[in-house]
Every structure is written in structure tokens, then in C-alpha cells.
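Hello Y.,

Per our agreement to keep a running log of every chain we model this quarter, I'm adding this entry. I've kept the format consistent with earlier entries: sequence first, then predicted structure.
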Amino acid sequence: ATDIRNLQLDKNHITCIEEGAFRALRTLEVLTLNNNNISSIPVSSFNHMPKLRTFRLHSNSLRCDCHLSWLSPWLRQRPTLGLYTQCSSPPTLRGLNLAELQKNEFTCSGQSDSAFVQPCSLASGSCPPMCSCSNNIVDCRGKGLTAIPAHLPEAMTEIRLEQNGIKSVPPGAFTSYKKLRRIDLSNNQISEIAPDVFQGLRALNSLVLYGNKITDLPRGLFEGLSSLELLLLNANKIHCIRATAFQDLENLALLSLYDNKIQTLAKGTFSPLHSIQTLHLAQNPFVCDCNLKWLADYLRSNPIETSGARCASPRRLANKRIGQIKSKKFRCSAKEQYHIPGTEDTRLNNECNSKPVCPAKCRCEANVVDCSNLRLTKFPQHLPVSTTELRLNNNDISVLEATGVFKTLSQLKKINLSNNKISEIEDGVFEGAGSVVELHLTANHLDSVRGTMFRGMGGLRMLMLRNNRISCIHNGSFTGLTSVRLLSLYDNQLHTIMPGAFDTLPNLSTLNLLANPFNCDCRLAWLGAWLRSRRIVTGNPRCQSPSFLREIPLQDVAAPDFRCDDVLEESSCVARPQCPSECTCTETVVRCSNKHLQAMPKGLPRNVTELYLDGNQFSMVPRELSTFKHLQLVAIGANPLYCDCHLRWLSDWVKSGYKEPGIARCAGPMGMEGKLLLTTPETKFECLGPVETSVQAKCSPCVSGPCQNHGVCQSDPVELYTCVCAPGFTGKYCETPVDVCASNPCTNGGTCISDEQTRRFSCSCLVGFHGSFCEVDVDDCEDHGCENGATCVDGVGNYTCFCPPFYIGLLCEEEEDVCSPGRNPCQQHSTCSSTATGPRCVCAPGFVGGDCSVNYDECVDQDCQNGAVCVDQVDGYTCTCPQGYSGELCEVPPPPPSPCERARCQNSAPCVDRGGTALCQCLPGFEGVRCEKLVSVNFVNRDSYLQLSDLKNWPQANITLQVSTAEDNGILLYNGDNKPMAVELHEGHVRVSYDPGSQPGHTIYSAETVNDGRFHTVELVTFDRMVNLSVDGGAPTTLDSLGGVPTLSGEAPLYVGGMPEKMSYSSLSLFQPLNSSSFHGCIRNLYINHELQDFTQTTMKPGVVPGCQPCRELFCLHGVCQPDGAQGPLCHCQPDWGGSHCDQSIGGGLVGGDVAPATASYRCECEEGWRATLCNQQGELTAPAVPEGPAKPCSVLLCQHGHCQLTEGGATYCLCDTGYTGDTCDTVESACRGEAVRDFHRVPRGHANCQTTRPFSWVECRGGCQGGGAACCAPLRVRRRRYTFECDDGSSFTQDVEKAVECGCKECV
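Predicted structure for the entry above:
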């Protein structure tokens, strides 16, 4: 069918398009391919459709590489086609509009990209012509293949490709064949394998790769192959195996690395192989030095190596089996030769497990990495794994970010971060630094300390926090640092320390608290006693306030002198949560919505993943938001964003990772109002006015002032610019001082001495320091006096003795008393006394044993009753009672349940106990013994309705409901799609409509009106081909549908009181008589086939409230009653009506005796003896007076354009005809007028719904006219315009539309 004009293929599973797929469709006008999985499209696929006017390609998986570059200019030449076509990959282009990309942005990185450009074939694949296929096995052995065939059968479980000439395995070669269990690529020429070639093959259990030229196994090659049992890599040229190469192969039983070039293996290489039974390592040139000792230990513990792996060097171990050599023989010595003639250098065998030798600009010697004095602002990456000491002192680091840099540094012992600008340490920065024993953070900007900062440093022994801004220490500051022995808080801002702050440091022996402004009030009393009892080296910290205690050591202050004279303010020295005060934080989610913020809140946690800033007053967003590298979602909607060039970065940033869900819109400048931040091209973010310096600098580099140190910038035709330096400086930017001492490179107070001839310097160090920069503290421990095996720790011009257990004193010269803290063996608050034979414990009541550690079990003789559980306590026990029982021994049984506890009233109904019988007092609208059913509801809103979805397809139906309303029109019931049946109010009567689709519709009306505010019973019975309608038990009205009455459709829901808007439009298109207004009023007791319907089981749209009882007392003449108002039931009036009963006209309508026509297209003038809107009810409400009895109420009230009604209290009122108002219905409701409307114009076109592409304005003529019915309110002047329509099937057309622009009274037509 080459004459197709409309082809819609959206929302399918299309993954590729064959070349020439649309070549024959030259008449095609509409083509939709959106919402598929298309990744690439052949060149010029759409060039043969000259009439194409609608084209959609968005929401696909387009890979924007060099093969798709043709599509960008094609879309730019056709700006109305393919809107929102965006790239899905590569990551750098994800989310960008394809039409906005330039040709040089579509790149291919080489051979690996060719795998993504494969011609389409059948989705299930097919057997290659040169191979044989049977039983899901594809056999391509010895076929001379140089590449792996494409489009193989997806159901294959085994592929045999051995003995061919294949040289490489490209990306994705096997990833789509999820059922593969065996792959054989042996005896080829493979030297290159893509890392993801086996990705997703969870069923693969055999992989054969022997006899190739593989030199390296890419990182992650075997990732996720948890079912693999056999892996043959023998007879290759592999020289290095990564330590994580086999980490997912938990079920691997046989691994062969026989006959390769492997000289060493990283420790733990085979640890993940929990099921390994056979290992082949022979015929590899192993260097048996200290790095391979682990392998000998592993093979002795796991005798699974059966090929006889042997050492190749050193000479003393050559040709000896690795598993039989003693561990002490594996050593590293400078005296031995480990190089093996004829093999690659040993470094090649370690390169896949090592990092770069030394970070840029840093100095590395032995295992010390020195990155000091480099003005670094963050940690260097890729540190050598053998690093034992890291020097980062004297830099400009302000925040320590959790990058995981220490997780690979298992040998690191010391970290020096002194003399930086560190003010924040993210939680988890030191994860993996468990081997570190010294951490120096001296001379930084820290103002608080929390234990999570140092998480992962369980082995830390020395923590230096000198010369910071720490103002308080709380009892969570040092959590987890159980090994710390020396803690220095010298020269901070400590005023107080919370009790228990050092309880998490059980091994603390030296605590430096000097040079702090301690306020020795009652809050610090605990510290004086603690210092006196601990006997740790402190240097005697001194009080600074109050004045009478100034310079007195804390431990010398008497307890009564730690006093608080005034009322204490609430202490601020508590663990500070990492959450801004204006926001709430849950783990890594921060919510700052609707807080009237105008700037980014301070103190956002660095690990935030979701940030909610919507509903604030942001006009600009600071660029620092992009520095939160863990941020995945940011909500900035409902902010007055000013989208000029300063927010261009934000537009690019949210598009790069879809971080903003497409809600945020611009508020300015002009032309950007309402545009989405996510989809608006970056070129639209422009600035008007003076050009910024950074932009001018691109044209005139000197504008940005690149020259430093007062250098003068001059334009240069070759170098763009040159800097003329001031005296004393040199370099391209005048950044280098001629005096090498200008930057003061000497640390620790050293004096720099410049040598002008050599332009070098030397440092004259203070006593106690030496080294090129005076960075090395002289080891004062070389001649120390520590006793009893104490450990000496060097200080600045001094040293500290770390005492072994049970020794104290500055030199650890005193032995602790056996009952002193730390040695006291007595537990549970028992008393310890020293004796000649050692400590003796006097136990507290309830405890026994030599150390009083055993709690005597008093439950042995317990008296708990009624199945209670005995719980042993100190010197006693307690009984845990079963539910309901009480008493010390659980001897008191539970009281019997009350009647109301058994009643279980539902729907919030209160229960009343009446003489031992429970009575549920149902709330309005609910019935039943337990108030379990909702049987009456009030429809308050204009678009409210109920939806019953569990209807059965009965052969006949009997529907009964009670209705109370004052409205003329509204939907009561609606059911069906193609053949709908509707029960509705029409001008106060009940109308039943049925449209069979292929026949003319049928309609019947009730003779009675039901819009008098009272409840009326409406009964609808369908049987065979008849419909009977009865109101209040009156004579039924019958409809013979001729074509058979439809049963209630179980496929379509039954709507009560209204219907969805989309359903209203479709119903109007089927038959015009159905009005689309929702019902206003009350509906109760809906029976379907004699079964009372429970409205709690329905889908209830907002605007439907339970109960109608309050509205029984309030009649709303021109409105509807809402039962749940603040002051009780309340009338909601129609337009132009007011008053508590909606009976007072406020619309300025006609007055006097003027007559206006009804708003409907006709009005019935009833003959004598008939009444009601359709003149179909016999009798008059105002019967003549009977002389024998009192006069009837309606006999004294004359309603000119309506009829008299009685309220429940017996009062009379006039119920006016449509278009009239007033106490006696003598006033025209409103004058003819034109009401302004601005909207889309909608028309049906076949089965499609169409509307104009843009809204426009017109007027609707409403109201009445004088003239006794001869004049009607109608358009006096109209305007005709041609508009373009778009339809939901993708088509469009143009058509003239005629709309009124002026209304007035004229002769009725």
C-alpha cells in the first residue's frame, strides 16, 4: 500500500529501521515513531517523503555518533518536524536536542563503535549461511571467519567459533543472546576483547578462550558471570591479572591460566572463587619474591593447583614448585636478581594493579608522598598503593570530600594536613584508612568535631587538632577512636566540654588542652574531677573565667568553686546536625520547599542526593549547586527564575543528567516567560546590556587582567598578549617572584636564605627541626627516659611516653595499684581491696563470683502467675504479664470486654452502651448495624461524580434511587460507551436517553418534576425490549427501543451524579440531548436489582460529601445545599442569585411587568387544568377554597410565571419558570448580554477530536429580551476567521470559524 498518507508507529518496541523501509511511501504526510527503542537510523531514511508535514521521533534511545550526524541538518532544514528529538547516548550528549548539535559533535571512537551500526534483521535472528544450526547450537568451527557473525538466533544456548581467524571481539557481540550457556572462541587470533562483551550473560557456565593472543583482561570483563563454572585462558600471552578480575565468579570450578606470561599475582586474586576445585598455573615465569608469598600459603591451604606451577626466579628457587616452598623463602632483597632473561620487565606484570607512580607536582621518595606547599585545593588522585606517609600540609584545601581515596592505601600510616584552610570534613572521608596511626590537622579552620568525620580510622593513635577554631567538644566528637592515645586540642576556642566527651577514648594517655579560654562554671566541674582521677598527661589546662579563677589549673579548682550564679542558657555544645536550619533532612534528602528563601541555604550536606527548593523566591541559582557531585534530583519549580545568560549553566547542568524533572519555568526576561528550564535551548539564555569581562576577554585578553603582581598587559599579534612584569617578578603571568624566599617556603618558623646567583634558597631551622624546608621534627626519642617498656612519641623539642598497661607517670615509672581504674577486676560496683595475694572483691547484693560478675538468677524461685515470664533483676526479679493481666505477680485477670469493644462500629461512628447493648450512632449518610454502608451523598462541586466499576452484565435491571435537588439539569446515572444509556434531570424532569449507535436515539420523560428540594423516588426497569420509568410510584412511562434495550454494561463503569470530562465530550458527540452538567443535590438509597449500593465501595471524586440530613432543613431556591459548612448547612447560589435561600436576585435583571422568553428554545403555555414545565401534569396546586374548611395555603399566593410550592414547615413560595425570578415570578432573570470567552474552538472530525492550534476570543449571548417571546437574545454582529486545527490522530486542516462579537435582542428565528 504505497498510497498511505498516515502511518502511526508510536508506542511500540521498534529497535531499528531497515534501509529503504519508507522509500516507497512518497505520499506519506504523517509519520510518528515516538516512544520506541530506536538507537540508530540509516542515512537518508526520510528523504523520499516530499509531502511529510507531521513527523515525531522523540522518546527513543538514539545514539548520537557519527552514523547519525546526517539527521541533524535534515531536522534543521525542516524546523516544524521532529520536535524534541533528543540524544540518549553518549553521556556527554544525553538530553540535548539532536537538531542543535553540530557535525563535529557526532563522533565515533574507532572500531569499537562499529558494533552499534548493524543492519536490521528479523528480531529473532537467523542462522548464518556458512554455519550449521540445530538444537539451539550454532556451529561455525573452521569456517575462515575473521569476525563474529551478527544477528544470530536469539534462542541459541551454545556457539562454537573455534579454529577461525577472528582477531577481536567488539562491544556487545554476545550481550543480546541471554540464553547462552557455552561460548568457544579457542584457537583464533584474538588480541583485543571489549570489556562489556559478556555483560548480562547470567546463564553462561562455560567460556573457552585458549589458544589466542590475549595480553590483557580488561577491567570488568567477567563482571556478573555468577553461573560460570569453566574458564579456559591457557596458551595466551597474558602478563597481568587484576586483583578483581574474578570477583563475581563464585561458582567457578576450573580456571586455567596455563602457559601465559604471568610473573606475579596480587594478593587475594583467587579469594572470590568459593567453588574452585582445579587451578592450572604452570608454564608461567613466576618471580618468587616477597610479593608471591601469599600464593604459596594459599596453595598449601587449598591443594587445587594440579599442573605443577614452579618458580622461574630467583636462582635459588628456580624450578621449585610454589606450593612446596616455605613462606620464609619468599623475600625481597637488593642482593638478588629477579629479572628473567627473555621475558618482559617485571613492571609490566604489576601495571594493571598499580596506580601512577607519583601525583603531578608532588615529590615521592621511598613510600613518602610529599604534596606540601603546592596550593592544592583538593586531595590528589591516584596515590601509589605503597604510600605509608602522605604530606599535604601548607596548601589551600578548605573541604575534605569523601572521594574514597584512602580505600586502596592499606599501608598508609601518617597523614599531614596541617596549615590548610579546612573548615569542613565530610562524613566518610577517611573510609579505608584503618591503618593510619597519625593524623595532623593543626592550623586549620575547624570549628566543631564529630565522630563521623573520622569514621574508618579505628587504628588512629595520634590526633593533632592544634590551632583551630573548635569551640565545644560533645560526647559524640570522638566516637570510634578507641585506639587514640595522644589528643591535642591546644590553642582552640574551647569554653566548655560536655560530660563524657572523652569516654570513647579508653586508651587516652596524653590530652593537651592548653591555651583555651575555659569558663570554669558548674558545667565544667566534671572535668576537674575527671582530670584528677585519670592521671593522664595534660599540661595543666587553666581557667580563664570567672575572674577569681583565672590562670588556676582546672584540676586544682575545688568542686564548690565550679558554680553557676545565673540561670544557665541552653548549651549550644551539642552534636550539630548537617542540615540547614530552614530545611528538613532525611538521610541524604534535603527539603527546603515553600520557605520564602531568596538564597541558597547555608550548611547543605555534601552528600545530598535530592534537594527540594521549589516554591521559594529564587530569581538566580548560584553555580556552587553544581559542586554537589552526589546530587541526582533538584526541584526548583515555582520560583521566579530570571533566565538570562547567568542561568545558562543551570540549563546545561539539569539537561546533562535530567536532574530537574521538567517543572521549573522561567519568569523572565521578556520572551522567556513560562519556558521550561529543561527543554529550552541554551542559546536562548542571553544577556542584554554591557558585555561581561569574561566575554570581552575572548576578544581582548588584557581585559581580564591576566598579569599578576602589578604586571602590565600588552597586546601581542603572535602570543595574543604579553605581561611586562614589575621588579622582583618574572614568568608569563609575572607569577614567579625573583626572590625565591618571597613565598616563605620554610616551615615551622624557619628562616629563608636566598642565593641570588643560583636562584635557590636554604632554610635556617629553629631548634628541634631540620630538613630542606625545616619540615622534619628532630627525633627527641633518640635519647629518651621512658621506663618499663613505654613507647616514646616525639614532640617539638620534647617527647611523650606512652605507658604500657598498669604503669603511669611522666616516664611510666610508677606501677598502678591493683585496685586503680583500669586494673580493678571487681565488677558491678563491687568494692576492691588490695591484699598480699592480690585484689579481693566484696560483691554488691545480687552478684556472686570472684570478680562479682555473675548476676544470681532470682527467677529460680519465682512466683509469677498466669503464664507470666520472669525477668531476673539485680537482687530481685519482675514478672512480665501476658496481655490484659496485671499485678506484681500478674495475679489480676483482665476485665471482660465492654459491648462497644465487641461492636466494632465503622466509618468513625461513635458507640453508646445502652443497658449492656452496644448501639452504633451512624454519622450522616451511613446505615447498618455497624454503620458499615454509605447510602446517601450530597454532590457539592460542579464536576463531582461517583463511579461504580463492579457491575454485572445482567439480562435485565431494576434501578431505584431517591433524589433531592433544586436544579433543573444534571446527570443522575450514565452507563455505556458505544451504546450509552443516561438518566438525567432535564428542566426539572427525569429524562432517560438511549443511543444504540446505528439507530436513532430514544428518549422518555417523567411526567413529574423532581427539582422542588424534596426527596423523590426514581425507578428504572429494563426488560426484554422495554424501559419503564416511574417517579414516586406514579404511572410508568415506557420506551420501546425496537432494537432491544441494552443491559448495564459490565465493561463500562456506571457513573452516578456526573461523569468525567472526557466522557462528557464523547457522549455529546454521540447524541446531543445529553446535558454534560453534573448533578447538584442529594442521592440516597441506590438499589440495583434490589441490592442496596454501598458508596464507600465506589470511586468518589472530591466534591461528594456523605449525608443529606442537614439539607432536609434548608431549601435553596436557586442553588444547591452544602451540608458541611462551618455554621451548618449552607446554600451555594447560582450566578445572579443571593440570600440564605438563594431567593434574592442580585443580577440587575428586568423589573416590572416585562416578559422575557425562557432560556430554552421553547416554553409551554399550559391550558386550564394542566401544569408543570411540559404541561403534562393534571390539576392545580392552588385549588379553590372550600367553604366548609379553612383555606389552603397556596390559594392566597399567585405565581405569574411559575407555580406555588409548600415547604416542610407549611410555608408557601413560588417556584419560577426558567428565565424568571422574584417573589411572584414577575421579574425577568437578566437582560440580554454578551459574556466574553477565550478558549480553543473544538470540533469532531470522524473519530478524531480536533481543536484550533491557539486560543482566540469571542462572546456568548446570554439572558432574555422584552417583547413577549417575539424577541430573542442573539448575535448582532459576527466575525469569520480561518483557523488551523490539529487532531489527536496526528492530522491537521484549516477551516473558517464564525463567532459572535456583539449580542442584542432581535426577532426570534
